[in-house]
Design a protein that fits this description.
The chain is mostly helical and 85 residues long. It has one domain: lambda repressor-like DNA-binding domains (434 Repressor (Amino-terminal Domain)). The protein has 5 helices and no strands. The longest helix is centred in the first third of the chain and has 11 residues. The chain starts with a helix and ends in a 19-residue tail after the last helix.
């Protein structure tokens, strides 16, 4: 499942609006919407961690559910996360 779709489903399951999630995370409502709709392909690790915490999702659970790889999210510098391979 795509990251944005997964986050949107988890947000809805918790009964939260985008505005509610924005308040909990400090990530703008507009940016959250773009993440959920796939318009932002690289949301940045800080945003993803903040969203996951607000939705009470373990990062491991998020990675597994989204078949997420380190190349999918970058540091704020725009560089991919280092791999442990």
């Amino acid at each position: 499942m795509e990251l944005g779709k997964y986050l949107a489903s988890q947000r809805r399951a918790k009964g939260l609006s985008l505005t509610d999630l924005a308040r909990r995370t400090g990530v703008s409502r507009s940016h959250l919407s773009k993440i959920e709709t796939g318009k932002v392909r690289d949301p940045g690790i800080a945003s993803v961690v903040s969203i996951a915490r607000a939705l009470e999702i373990e990062i491991g659970q998020l990675v597994e559910a989204c078949e997420w790889h380190s190349e999918s999210v970058s540091y704020s510098s725009g560089r991919p996360l280092p791999t442990t391979d």
